Amino acid sequence: MVPTNEAGRYADDVEKYNAVAIEVMKKYNVSVNDLNRLSQKVHPKYGLGNDNVHYTEKGYEILAAKIIHGLKKAM
Fold first, then answer.
1. Is 30 exposed, middle or buried (0-12, 13-18, 19+ CB in 10 A)?
2. Residues 32-66: pLDDT tens digits?
3. Residue 55, beta-bridge partner list
């Protein structure tokens, strides 16, 4: 997720980059843990602002839980 006022980054690029990344991962049978959808829900409440891609500690905890779940599933 890229907040709308983040300098030098464009929200529309996320979908484009993710589509290419998913295509490459599928080609090489690499599992994908899509954090973008979750980050869109988390950032409004736990982001550091509409001009910052980073999160509060709680925001990172929420994202980390999804990462941990994906890693456990892959193991």
1. exposed
2. 999 999 999 999 999 999 889 899 999 999 999 99
3. 47
Cα 64 from chain centroid (whole Å): 11
Supply the pTM of this predicted model: 0.81
Taking the CA atoms of 57, 66, 54 and 30 in sequence, report the sign of the dihedral they define.
positive
What's the one-letter identity of residue 35? Answer: L
Tell me the backbone φ, ψ of residue 36, rounded to 5 degrees.
Answer: -60, -50
pLDDT > 90? residue 1: no
- Alpha-carbon span 7 to 26, nearest angstrom: 32
Residues 65 and 19: their CA atoms lie apart, in Å, by 23
Closest CA to 42 of 57, 62, 26, 24: 62
Both tokens assigned to 45:
């409440």
